[in-house]
């Protein structure tokens, strides 16, 4: 990163914003080409950021910022397997998991592509055997239910993807248990028969306490129902820690590996995607990978002003750092993307929620925003009030498919689309006091009532949103969409000059939980803890008496 050039460019951006405050309603009225100028296409996939308060100069300065950070150089370093995860001394190569025809990528002596293909082939064979009934449970019955046991990146990606690809789901039912709360496992097992259930224990490290505790509970359940000898036919595992998997007792031909150059939150494309592959079949899973690979190629080759992930990242940086907005809402107008916001929370916040830069000094700009959301139209009836009239400005990212999967319910889809477009229009346009008054008077309200109520019906407008719109959420497009978001995180991380690929921030809580367990169990005294911690544990003990 050329810090001097970056600082200069950032100062120019700030000065430009201060000197040319934008009213988007006026900007649209003055420029009929605004949509053309601030939108970009990759095939059918459109990114429209014309409803963000930017102009040509803003985009020029943002591109200059990308150049100052050597975005292109860092991108090349990532794709070629350089150890860009500097705190863990690792390559970052989730892109290799979907580059199935790639050749010649060797990392630390490993032929990456050969290994990727061989795991994918093994997963496909296993998925086919489970789906066809060739591989049965211990008593010879066909597997009807898969329970994936994992958490964080070993859960959120597959859960989100299984739901997103529901129209293609023709394999066994798929369940996900992540929480250490016994209720999660209990409620999942309640409706299942051990004879027809396969557990996949998914953990990169195979040490995560939630996953290992849940896996042991599941193993005891199988043993109690079918006997110890049944375990082999009812468990599979996905991990980088093959020695620990072997210790757990899962049969070798049911273990699917990955590598330390795949970060947990970037891992759905490889063996962690096994439950998705069993649900939708290897062909659909490969189409999902192919879509992501297409987006990788786009990200690698498209010029900055047409490069969807880069543009999304630049706009994200603009909102976070230059405009100072601390959050962004991601609102898919697609019920099947209802877990996308949760998935993006880990992808984005675990990656870019950092305060230290690559050179170990304190971050000089704000870093990753709070990411949250819910599907539309449901969100409209919950928190959109605040988005429209609250005192904070929260940029919104709308996501929608032009075509639904249910042709016989086209009317529903038309309404869905009318809503998503209406929301972005309302955020941008708002409603002036004069407009509110005119509307109320036209409805026959008395002038004194209008005076009192009209201010409550004013919408400031000028609130930024962008829209991602594509034809249909098929596996290929879904792959493209997720890859856009992954690369966007990379772009923003590069602009913040941080390492987006470690996650030390989750360690402290884990360490303290381990040390508090004996205190909760009453084996150790809480007195040495701070007064609140001791007080809470004391109350837990009293309530358990
Ligand atoms: O929450 C921290 C974390 O390390 C995530 O990064 C990871 O996805 C998750 O825990 C699960 O880790 P594992 O796959 O090793 O069980």
UniProtKB/TrEMBL annotation:
Catalytic class of the enzyme? isomerase
Q: Which UniProt keywords apply?
A: Cytoplasm, Gluconeogenesis, Glycolysis, Isomerase
Q: Catalytic residues?
A: 350 (proton donor), 381, 510
Q: Where in the cell is it found?
A: Cytoplasm
Origin superkingdom:
Bacteria
Question: Which pathway does the record list?
Answer: Carbohydrate degradation; glycolysis; D-glyceraldehyde 3-phosphate and glycerone phosphate from D-glucose: step 2/4; Carbohydrate biosynthesis; gluconeogenesis
- What is this enzyme's EC? 5.3.1.9
Q: Which Gene3D superfamilies match?
A: 1.10.1390.10, Glucose-6-phosphate isomerase like protein, domain 1
Q: Name one GO molecular function term.
A: glucose-6-phosphate isomerase activity
Do the record's keywords include Thylakoid? no
Which Pfam families does this UniProt record tie to the protein? PGI
What is catalyzed by this enzyme? alpha-D-glucose 6-phosphate = beta-D-fructose 6-phosphate
The entry sums up its family as follows: Belongs to the GPI family.
Name the NCBIfam families for this protein. Answer: PRK00179.1
Role according to the record: Catalyzes the reversible isomerization of glucose-6-phosphate to fructose-6-phosphate.
Specify the protein name.
Answer: Glucose-6-phosphate isomerase
């Amino acid at each position: 990163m050329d810090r001097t050039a970056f600082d200069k460019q950032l100062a120019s951006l700030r000065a430009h914003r201060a000197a040319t405050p934008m009213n988007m309603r006026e900007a649209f009225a003055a420029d009929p080409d605004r949509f053309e100028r601030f939108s970009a296409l990759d095939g059918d996939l459109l990114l429209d950021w014309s409803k963000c308060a930017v102009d040509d100069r803003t985009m020029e300065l943002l591109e200059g910022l990308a150049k100052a950070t050597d975005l292109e150089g860092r991108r090349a370093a990532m794709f070629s397997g350089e150890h860009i995860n500097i705190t863990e001394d690792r390559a970052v190569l989730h892109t290799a998991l979907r580059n199935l025809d790639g050749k010649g990528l060797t990392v630390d002596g490993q032929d990456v592509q050969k290994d990727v293909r061989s795991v994918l082939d093994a997963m496909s064979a296993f998925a086919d055997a489970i789906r066809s009934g060739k591989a049965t449970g211990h008593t010879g019955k066909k597997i009807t239910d898969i329970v994936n046991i994992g958490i964080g990146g070993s859960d959120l990606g597959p859960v989100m993807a299984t739901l997103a690809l529901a129209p293609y789901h023709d394999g066994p039912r798929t369940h996900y248990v992540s929480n250490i709360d016994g209720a999660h496992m209990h409620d999942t097992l309640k409706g299942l028969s051990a004879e027809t259930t396969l557990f996949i224990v998914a953990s990169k490290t195979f040490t995560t306490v939630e996953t290992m505790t849940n896996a042991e509970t599941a193993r005891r359940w199988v043993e109690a129902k079918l006997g110890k000898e049944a375990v082999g036919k009812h468990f599979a595992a996905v991990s980088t820690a093959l020695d620990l998997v072997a210790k757990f007792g899962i049969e070798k031909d049911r273990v699917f590996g990955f590598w330390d150059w795949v970060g947990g939150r970037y891992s759905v494309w490889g063996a962690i995607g096994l439950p998705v592959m069993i649900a939708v079949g290897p062909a659909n899973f490969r189409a999902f990978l192919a879509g992501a690979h297409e987006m990788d190629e786009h990200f690698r080759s498209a010029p900055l002003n047409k490069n969807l992930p880069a543009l999304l990242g630049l706009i994200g940086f603009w909102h976070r750092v230059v405009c100072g907005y601390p959050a962004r809402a991601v609102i898919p107008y697609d019920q099947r993307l209802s877990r996308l916001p949760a998935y993006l929370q880990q992808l984005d916040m675990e990656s870019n929620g950092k305060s230290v830069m690559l050179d170990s000094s304190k971050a000089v700009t704000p870093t990753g925003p709070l990411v949250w959301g819910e599907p539309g139209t449901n969100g409209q009836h919950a928190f959109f009030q605040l988005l429209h009239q609250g005192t904070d400005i929260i940029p919104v990212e709308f996501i929608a498919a032009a075509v639904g999967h249910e042709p016989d319910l086209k009317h529903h889809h038309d309404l869905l689309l009318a809503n998503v477009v209406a929301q972005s229009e309302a955020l941008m346009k708002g409603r002036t006091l004069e407009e509110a008054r005119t509307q109320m008077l036209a409805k026959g309200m008395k002038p004194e009532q209008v005076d009192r109520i009209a201010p409550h019906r004013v919408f400031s407008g000028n609130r930024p949103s962008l829209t991602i719109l594509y034809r249909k959420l098929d596996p290929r497009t879904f792959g493209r969409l997720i890859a856009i978001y992954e690369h966007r995180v990379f772009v923003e991380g590069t602009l913040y000059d941080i390492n987006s690929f470690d996650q030390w921030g989750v360690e402290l809580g884990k360490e303290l939980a381990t040390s508090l367990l004996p205190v909760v169990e009453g084996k150790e005294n809480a007195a040495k803890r701070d007064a609140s911690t001791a007080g809470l544990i004391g109350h837990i003990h009293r309530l358990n008496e």
